[in-house]
Write a structure and sequence with these properties.
Rossmann fold, 3 domains, 15 strands, 6-stranded parallel beta sheet, 7-stranded parallel beta sheet, elongated, 674 residues, alpha/beta, 27 helices
Length: 674
């Protein structure tokens, strides 16, 4: 490594010599050298700008891949690498300017420590004679600053110079290393009496100015969060200031002007290759606004979360419910209400949504807590102490949420949050660490049993409860005795998967329904909204002027589902909730099928998502979108035929219509008594 640095120093020493000869001033030669390096590095800056733009262009696709492979890091890494190859993006290319800058600084340090060799071009034998003479006078010249020491002593005046060294001494005496009153051969000292302390101070200030501009116009920094930018700025200021104390002041001058000249260089790069020409700036704006909103929520509710965590720890618990967000309470509500009516059990409800309505509800039987998904949730579950824990979240024990390490006898119950196929839409083994499953229908029972047999896993207790949310929806729908909509309502509710309706054809569909007699509501999946909120804010802005189109991102109510005359979806389980509640048809778009478990077809039971597709309505390909208006109109005319088909399918495939909350509640009370 030292040999490489020596080669670099030799190269930059030649350039510094040219600069010094050109301006005949040591300080100015450093500034000219800095300008030269920025000029030489400019083509590399353009190359890295192009590479950074590719990364910015890939950002939405990478976000989609994170959603697709949220729990499969290996497959995400493979897909990411494939995308890099397709876009010809080189992850290490952005490091090249930094590596070159490090080499320049290391080489320049060598030049600054050896000005006799590089600036004055003295021969090694002559320098060796000087060194030997100084050592004869009692000086110890063994460190890397021996040339600076000799220069300093000679320029301060030294007597008894041998005749053969007089020419060298005169040449050194005429070599002025001062610049605007600063001796650039000396190291700054942290002292008010040492004016060189201004060099580190100015080094830090120049780093701050560079970071301010970089945070505003650099392509990659456009995506960086507020605290990321602040952290990088603080680091650069601290590093620049500290570094300037370690080296001769001449290197500090290079660092100061290097930071300052980087500013016009960045502007020039953006003029030659403007990011807004290649990047969706609205996407970046919305992304940053979303990040700021999340940070506000974290700040706003951080203290509440800490208090709730400690309150939860101190509470004696028997039944615990966990919800990932506000939209999950509806799956538990019928069970909670039944237990509250029929027992004296206290229930503890943990939600990771600070604005979950249950946190503001006054319920004597329910204690609610806000625990976010990052800091406190993992230890909460690791130390969980209760009798029964109910969750709608699959993959218990496989990822961040584990079974309790405090109690091994907790009964973990999986509560389905959809009526679709577990084998198809959940990952392989997603329910293996649950003790009990509240089963929606005969299809789910057969799937679980066949999966257990196939993989020889521990049999779970399968309770034929039915689907409590469906019962509640049917009851509500019948009580309200809804009248026919004068203006037909069409609900578009896609699944959460890559290449869903939102990704493939939402604009194409909405354009077909613009200025039609239909009222169209887009209700994306909660998880996609959570991961891509900026996308839906952008859609809301885009269709704000279309009176018959609404983009809905609040999932706390089912009224939208019940009001619709026709549902358009792809592979979402909302098709079952909608059809089995209203007995109205569903128009399926044949996007690529949502397959969370590639081994779903190893069992005999066929997924209900496939077998009922043309029973609940009609399926069309993405290529038929141009005809969607005519197809939907025709389906609405055949509503009576679909009503009978859907009612028969509901009776055949769903357990205990109208009794699910009772069966679920009775099972929980029985287990608690046991």
């Amino acid at each position: 490594m030292n040999q490489i640095i020596n080669y670099v120093s030799d190269f930059f020493g030649i350039i510094m010599r040219w600069c010094y000869v050109f301006v005949n001033n040591y300080g100015l030669s450093i500034i000219v050298f800095t300008i030269f390096t920025k000029f030489v590095l400019f083509p590399i800056s353009l190359i890295t700008q192009k590479n950074s733009i590719k990364m910015a262009q890939m950002r939405p696709k990478l976000d989609a891949l994170k959603v697709k492979y949220v729990d499969d890091k290996d497959r995400y890494a493979d897909a990411q690498l494939e995308l890099y190859k397709k876009m010809q993006y080189h992850p290490l290319l952005d490091m090249i300017p930094l590596l070159i800058q490090i080499l320049i600084v290391l080489g320049l340090v060598g030049v600054m420590y050896c000005p006799l060799s590089y600036i004055l071009r003295m021969q090694d034998p002559d320098i060796a004679m000087l060194q030997k003479w100084f050592e004869g006078l009692g000086w110890t010249l063994q460190d890397n600053s021996y040339q600076l020491t000799m220069i300093h002593e000679i320029q301060n005046g030294i007597s008894g110079v041998p005749e053969n060294l007089m020419g060298l001494i005169e040449k050194i005496s005429d070599f002025d290393m001062n610049f605007i009153g600063f001796n650039l051969s000396e190291k700054p000292q942290l002292s008010l009496h040492n004016k060189l302390v201004l060099i580190p101070v100015l080094s830090g200030v120049s780093a701050w100015l560079m970071c301010v501009v970089q945070n505003k116009i650099n392509v990659l920094q456009l995506y960086a969060g507020k605290w990321n930018k602040i952290g990088m700025t603080v680091f650069m200021i601290a590093f620049s200031t500290y570094f300037a104390f370690l080296v001769p002041a001449g290197v500090g001058v290079y660092w100061i002007f290097g930071n300052l000249f980087a500013i016009p260089s960045m502007y020039l790069v953006n003029i030659v290759m403007p990011p807004e020409k290649y990047i969706d700036m609205d996407y970046i704006r919305i992304l940053n606004e979303t990040a700021e909103e999340k940070e506000k929520i974290r700040k706003k509710y951080g203290r509440t979360e800490k208090q709730d965590y400690h309150r939860f720890e101190k509470t004696e618990k028997r039944i615990v419910f966990y919800a990932e967000g506000r939209g999950f309470y509806k799956y538990y509500q019928p069970i909670i209400e039944y237990l509250a009516e029929r027992s004296d059990y206290k229930m503890d409800y943990v939600t990771s949504d600070p604005e979950d309505p249950i946190l503001k509800q006054e319920q004597s039987a329910v204690r609610a807590y806000y625990i976010a998904q990052d800091k406190y949730l993992i230890p909460l579950f690791m130390k969980l102490d209760c009798d029964i824990c109910l969750m709608t979240m699959p993959d218990l024990e496989k990822y961040h949420i584990k079974r309790s390490k405090v109690r091994s006898d907790i009964e973990y119950i999986y509560v389905a949050h959809g009526m679709g196929s577990n084998a198809l839409t959940l990952r392989k083994g997603a329910l293996d660490y649950y003790d009990t499953v509240f089963c929606v229908g005969i299809d789910s029972v057969r799937e679980i049993q066949q999966m257990e047999a196939l993989y020889v896993t521990q049999p779970k207790t399968l309770v034929e409860t039915g689907y409590a949310l469906l019962d509640q929806m049917i009851e509500q729908y019948q009580i309200e005795n809804r009248k026919e909509n004068e203006k037909k309502k069409i609900l578009i509710a896609p699944s959460w998967q890559p290449e869903n309706i939102i990704d493939l054809c939402i604009e194409q569909i909405l354009d077909k329904y613009k200025n039609t007699p239909y009222e169209v509501i887009v209700r994306p999946h909660p998880q996609q909204v959570r991961h891509q909120m900026e996308r839906f804010v952008e859609m809301q802005e885009r269709y704000a002027k279309d009176d018959n189109i609404t983009i809905q991102t609040d999932f706390s109510s089912n009224s939208t589902v019940m009001d619709a005359d026709l549902l358009i979806t792809d592979w979402s389980d909302i098709s079952f909730e909608y059809a089995f509640t209203t007995l109205k048809p569903v128009l399926f778009i044949d996007t690529p099928m949502k397959i969370m478990n590639p081994e779903y077809d190893k069992i005999e039971q066929k997924p209900i998502n496939v077998t009922l597709r043309n029973v609940l309505g009609k399926a069309i390909s993405v290529n038929d979108i141009d005809n969607i208006l005519e197809i939907s109109t025709d389906m609405l005319k055949q509503k009576d035929m679909y009503r009978k088909q859907i009612a028969d399918a509901r009776e055949k495939h769903i357990f205990n219509i109208g009794k699910s909350r009772i069966l679920s509640g009775k099972y929980i009370m029985k287990r608690l008594m046991e």
